[in-house]
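Milestone M4 deliverable, item 7.
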Amino acid sequence: QVQLVESGGGSVQAGGSLRLSCVASGDSYQRNRMGWFRQAPGKEREGVAAIMTLSGRTVYADSVKGRFTISQDNAKNTLYLQMSGLRFEDTAIYYCAAGSGPTLTLRAAYYTYWGQGTQVTVSS
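Output delivered:
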């Protein structure tokens, strides 16, 4: 089992920055792939960024490339999402997710464990 707890959400004006954190606990073999997803009202959940925890390889959605950075601190079992240049359309609930396997992907079906989510609101 894996537990994920997100924090760091909040309200910010367009152009501002936020950093989300996700503390992971439990079986590390079940979380070698970790990612951030978001869901806006009335929209489907979408993958934002993902990382393979051993190699550090990353992937980003086109909509956030150059603005968001995913990183990890393995000593603290913590995943981060640094968000800069925030836009109104980035407003959503952001979820941390974990899964196992060799594929680096933003497809939600590849993730087994999910956090409770943290709200990010960007005002224009």
